[in-house]
Amino acid sequence: MKFRISREDALIIVDVQVDFCPGGALPVPDGDKIIPVLNEYIRKFEEAGAVIVATRDWHPPNHISFKTHGGLWPPHCIQGTRGAEFHPNLRLPERTIVISKATDPLKEAYSGFEGTNLASLLKGIGVRRVFIGGLATEYCVKNTVLDAIKYGFETFLLEDAIKGIDVNPGDVERAIKDMLDKGARKITLINMK
Length: 193
Ligand code: VGL
Ligand code: ZN
Fold this sequence. Notes:
By secondary structure, the protein is of the alpha/beta class. 24% of the residues lie in helices and 20% in strands. Helix 3 runs parallel beside helix 4. The longest helix has 14 residues. It is globular and about 45 Å long. It starts with 8 loop residues before the first strand and ends in a 6-residue tail after the last strand. Pyrazine-2-carboxylic acid (VGL) binds next to helix 3.
């Protein structure tokens, strides 16, 4: 099956930031390998005039997500730092809608919809289908996908443009299964016209 991208579609690129790539503060193994694939999706969505969204983890220095503040993770994606920038190889068009999340020091927010205006923004411009890829599969990608389903978007997981951490082996597999069980559909570049 081939999908023709329309103006009712949105590409949502989750957290492809320096800190989540090899060499960063919270590296996803091979996280940078998805960038050329995402660039190809971007090209197709750009050509179709579809919406392109990039979410970014955008923590204050005292965020609850950090081990230093009771959380699970080393400090990462601190607002305004180099680690919080989008990866320099990711070719985001000028018109990309940037969504900053997890900005409240007291709240973890893995989903791009959590505490942001993303859902109303997409509804407002008539988006019905969302195509989601990025980092990391079992955290921010998964939570963004599940929220997209809850908000009523037809939701596609870009199977060739996600990478996970797998803190416990099997986490990534379970996350993918969970997303599919809850109604997401898998898709790859070869399924896009
Ligand atoms: C993420 C852990 C902590 C993610 C963000 O983008 O998946 N993971 N903060
Ligand atoms: Zn984070």
